[in-house]
Backbone:
């Protein structure tokens, strides 16, 4: 017979634990007791119900049929009075006794109501007009009452009080927030942050009184006001108390369990000295800590489910690192960890801009984030949360923790996030789970949210969930689903993938799928990245399968919005000749090319060329391809340099041409754009290139790497200063090769260089600390040697119909109907 | 009734080519296992040429904005309208054939 499992408490922790047990196929006869007369709902959403942005019906998590469907006996509206630990029975207030083999207590918390005279009326519970904010019934009653009254006072300026105050504004005209401490949200914020928050809250029309101890609720039959310690009275007809919570541990206590601030449990969530009784959620005290947020409950529920079902009997809960976010529209607050420095060598970073209502403060210990407070601007929340939760190394430039300064976007983008990074902090849903769900066939944002519960907590992560789902569903190929994999369809990070390719001697994209993907499944979105990688690794030996190429690489031109292509001939270093210009002009004229344009890369673009015309245009131009379409070496911009410019100290044009000549067209994980400039005036914009060379006085050259001025702006890091153009050419090749071998697919140098660190790159590329410089040079030599100008591929199409149109632009040969 | 489009060999393995069939633009893809799929050739998103897209055994990815469509059902996997699917096969002479009715 299945073991009997009894759960006291049908709240967020109790119901979740049951779900986790079911998900593990746990075989129990389950009975649940809940004080409320209905199924299980999302308590967090009560704030939204009060604010009128969520419907009551939308917050139910499990309705009654869910219990029936899963064979769970639900005693809704039945309170448990006592546990008999020896007879292993629970006694409910309706007189029934229910035996158990295993018992889970998940009775949560209740609102803590300070002993203020006037709060209660003898024998009638709360004074009419006085409310707590904990349950659905509280919320309903509050809304009903508030609608018929005018002025509310909310006692307590923490998260709950602020959300209550904002919600009440939806139902009556005037709300005052009365807070005993010196500033709002004092558990999460320091005084400066609290002051800035207060201004933002006041801007919403909520009156705030701090340092205000409420000493009495006034009014005989109904409430007429509250009295403060300093003698002031605030007239009102509704009072909401949000002064804190206390663990609901009475049942446990009267039954003889060890209760301090909550029911004391060990790392398996087992009540102290009990073999078969467990506690989870807000009623539990683990390692001296009780929690008032949901994230820890999810962790606890998982551990307990692992333990109880035998999936992992030794599963252990080690406590949670918690972060809070205020759910008040227009007032963004997020906080995690400690609020101020606690030790002498703690670093503190503070930014404050009161006029804009922005305040940020961070505490760093031993190079790790241990606390963060964000008011008014929470754009860095996701990034900081990850750094905090996973104790990541922090950027050298601390200011990057607070602001976006070029570089990859700090808000973790869907692709950048690690698989196990938590997206929904309410329901404990990781990116990996979302992606799996999408790949499992659920392709709508709502479907995924329903299945995983992500975004169904406080809702603040919805936009991130959406981004991840859209991306996992294939919205954007330039970002890969599994952050650590080189391409989404082959489950391996780059070094592992390259090693496997070498071990098995895989020289074609199809052989990679066949050998390295379980089940051998191909993946359209991985083909381009694999093709690039294999080409880099095997050079001449690479087995080129045309279907592995993106259309641009099949026809050596860039596809445009109308399905036509652009033709960009090579113009090394941006230097051209009258003869070349004439030829381009003639070709453009002869074929009525719709637009001829100078590009930002210092060459000429013929735009709007139909696919079928490409071979002819190339042949008439008879110039090499400029590779303006590939994930490859693109251009070397130059300035006029010492030959003509009165400031030039180096022949930037000649060096630029030499670089382009040598490294033209080599493929890489991302585009490689270079520049050489003749003096630090930097007319060729070399500081913001993947590799930029700057001539300096004394015949020397500075090499900058990892610069960008596209979607992100970043000044390159100085890699080396050398004394000859030859050294520039060598170091360029070595740097590019190191990048090609190590960067992730589509990771430009502006992301890769800071990720690896310029010091490390210098060690390898300049100082040859790893002893691989010769290998890098040789590999690059091989690539350079394997280079063939693709525009020579024009006499004979490489594949049938290579240049046949795919568009309804021309009348296609009509085939007869038989 | 069926419509003959041309030799299968016109489509390189793993790629697609466009045909005009009775006034419709049809993209025919030749999967790596040799089987064919035929779908409307114009991406419902912004008119991208689907035959220029990359495929695997399941989906075609439009080259313009990378919306993906199921090759067998035509269903969009990225929230776009679905594509029409055409029953397609190869006749005895190795020609691509579009059937107006599913062959028995
Ligand atoms: C033609 C050109 C614009 C122009 O008229 O000047 C151009 C056109 C395109 N750029 Fe660019 N970029 C052009 C110079 C630049 C530059 C300036 C430069 O090269 O000095 C930049 C900033 C430098 C950089 O790359 O960091 C630039 C940053 C981008 C980016 C952003 C890359 C990034 O990660 O920051 C993209 C998008 C991408 O790569 O994903 C992009 C993508 C594109 C694409 C290829 C979009 C696409 O995939 O279809 C555009 C093709 C249009 C078309 O229909 O052919 N283009 N693009 C320039 C060609 C230069 C050349 O001769 O090769
Ligand atoms: C308005 C509001 C907003 C919130 N917003 C957030 C937020 O944004 N983020 C966040 O992380 N957290 C938030 N919280 C906190 C979060 O709701 C709690 O942490 C969570 O609900 C605790 O879950 P629990 O299961 O431990 O307790 P509860 O959800 O309170 O469940 C306790 C259950 O036990 C039952 N019970 C109690 N005693 C008995 C008994 N004797 N017999 C039978 N059943 C009994 C109750 O009926 C209930 O079903 C918010 C809370 C409120 C009130
Ligand atoms: S900036 Fe570049 S990608 Fe954007 S529209 Fe212009 S050419 Fe296209
Ligand atoms: S046109 Fe096909 S994805 Fe935009």
Residues:
């Amino acid at each position: 017979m299945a073991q009997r499992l009894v759960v006291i408490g049908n709240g967020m922790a109790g119901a979740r634990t049951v779900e986790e047990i079911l998900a593990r196929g746990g075989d129990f006869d389950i009975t649940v007791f809940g004080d409320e007369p209905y199924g299980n709902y999302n308590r967090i959403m009560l704030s939204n119900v009060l604010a009128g942005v969520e419907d009551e019906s939308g917050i139910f998590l499990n309705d009654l049929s869910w219990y029936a469907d899963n064979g769970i006996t639900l005693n809704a509206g039945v309170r448990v009075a006592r546990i008999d630990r020896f007879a292993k029975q629970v006694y409910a207030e309706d007189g029934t006794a229910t035996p158990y083999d295993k018992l889970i207590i998940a009775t949560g918390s209740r609102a803590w109501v300070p002993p203020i005279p006037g709060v209660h009326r003898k024998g009638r519970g709360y004074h009419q007009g006085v409310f707590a904010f904990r349950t659905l019934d509280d919320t309903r009653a509050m809304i009903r009452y508030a609608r018929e009254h005018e002025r509310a006072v909310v006692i307590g300026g923490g998260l709950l009080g602020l959300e209550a105050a904002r919600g009440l504004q939806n139902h009556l005209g005037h709300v005052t927030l009365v807070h005993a401490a010196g500033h709002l949200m004092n558990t999460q914020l320091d005084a400066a942050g609290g002051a800035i928050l207060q201004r933002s809250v006041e801007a919403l029309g909520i009156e705030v009184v701090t340092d205000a101890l409420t000493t009495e609720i006034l009014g005989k039959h109904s409430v007429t006001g509250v009295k403060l310690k300093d003698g002031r009275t605030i007239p009102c007809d509704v009072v909401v108390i949000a002064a804190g919570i206390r663990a609901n541990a009475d049942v446990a206590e009267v039954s003889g369990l060890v209760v301090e601030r909550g029911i004391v449990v060990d790392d398996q969530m087992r009540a102290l000295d009990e073999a078969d009784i467990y506690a989870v959620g807000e009623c539990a005290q683990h390692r001296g800590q009780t929690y008032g947020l949901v994230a820890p409950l999810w962790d606890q529920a998982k551990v307990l489910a692992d333990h109880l079902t035998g999936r992992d009997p030794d599963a252990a809960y080690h406590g949670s690192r918690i972060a809070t976010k205020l759910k008040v529209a227009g007032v963004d607050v997020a906080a995690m960890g400690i609020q101020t420095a606690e030790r002498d060598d703690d670093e503190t970073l503070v930014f404050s801009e009161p006029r804009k209502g922005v305040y940020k403060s961070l505490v760093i210990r031993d190079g790790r984030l241990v606390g963060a407070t964000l008011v008014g601007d929470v754009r860095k929340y996701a990034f900081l949360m990850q750094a905090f939760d996973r104790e990541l190394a922090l950027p050298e430039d601390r200011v990057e923790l607070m602001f976006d300064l070029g570089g990859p976007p700090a808000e973790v983008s869907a692709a950048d996030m690690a698989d196990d990074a938590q997206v929904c902090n309410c329901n404990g849903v990781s990116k990996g789970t979302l992606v799996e769900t999408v790949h499992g066939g659920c392709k709508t944002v709502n479907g995924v949210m329903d299945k995983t519960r992500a975004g169904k907590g406080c809702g603040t992560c919805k936009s991130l969930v959406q981004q991840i789902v859209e991306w996992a569903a294939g919205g954007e190929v330039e970002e890969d689903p599994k952050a650590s994999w080189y391409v989404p369809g082959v489950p391996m990070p780059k070094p592992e993938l390259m090693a496997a390719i070498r071990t098995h001697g895989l020289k074609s994209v199809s052989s990679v799928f066949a050998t390295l993907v379980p089940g051998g499944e191909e993946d359209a979105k991985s083909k381009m990245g694999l093709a690039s990688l294999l080409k880099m690794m095997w050079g001449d030996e690479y087995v080129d399968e045309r279907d592995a190429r993106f259309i641009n690489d099949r026809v050596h031109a860039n596809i445009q919005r109308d399905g036509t292509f652009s033709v960009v001939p090579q113009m090394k270093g941006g230097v051209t000749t009258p003869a070349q210009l004439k030829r381009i002009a003639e070709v453009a004229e002869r074929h009525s090319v719709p637009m001829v344009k100078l590009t930002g890369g210092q060459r000429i673009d013929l735009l709007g060329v139909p696919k079928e015309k490409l071979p002819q245009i190339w042949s008439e131009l008879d110039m090499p391809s400029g590779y303006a379409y590939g994930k490859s070496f693109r251009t070397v911009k130059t300035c006029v340099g010492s030959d003509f410019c009165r400031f030039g100290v180096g022949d930037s044009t000649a060096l630029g041409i030499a670089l382009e000549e040598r490294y033209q067209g080599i493929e890489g994980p991302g585009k490689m754009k270079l520049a050489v400039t003749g003096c630090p005036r930097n007319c060729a914009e070399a500081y913001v290139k993947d590799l930029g060379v700057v001539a300096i006085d004394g015949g020397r050259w500075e090499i900058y790497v990892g610069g960008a001025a596209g979607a992100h702006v970043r000044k390159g890091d100085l890699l080396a200063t050398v004394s000859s153009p030859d050294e520039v050419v060598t170091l360029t090749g070595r740097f590019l090769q190191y990048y090609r071998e190590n960067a992730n697919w589509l990771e430009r140098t502006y992301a890769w260089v800071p990720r690896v660190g310029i010091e490390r790159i210098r060690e390898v590329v300049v100082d040859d600390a790893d002893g691989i410089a010769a290998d890098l040079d040789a590999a690059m030599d091989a690539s350079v040697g394997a280079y063939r100008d693709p525009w020579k591929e024009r006499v004979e199409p490489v594949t049938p119909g290579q240049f046949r149109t795919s568009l309804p632009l021309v009348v296609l040969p009509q085939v007869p109907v038989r | 009734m069926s419509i003959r489009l041309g030799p299968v060999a016109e489509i390189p393995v793993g790629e697609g080519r466009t045909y005009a069939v009775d006034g419709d633009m049809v993209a025919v893809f030749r999967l790596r296992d040799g089987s064919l799929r035929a779908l409307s050739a114009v991406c419902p998103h912004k008119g991208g040429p689907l035959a220029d897209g990359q495929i695997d055994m399941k989906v075609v990815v439009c080259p313009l904005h990378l919306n993906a469509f199921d090759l067998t059902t035509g269903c969009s996997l990225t929230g776009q309208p679905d594509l029409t699917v055409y029953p397609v096969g190869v006749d005895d002479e190795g020609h691509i054939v579009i059937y107006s009715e599913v062959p028995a």
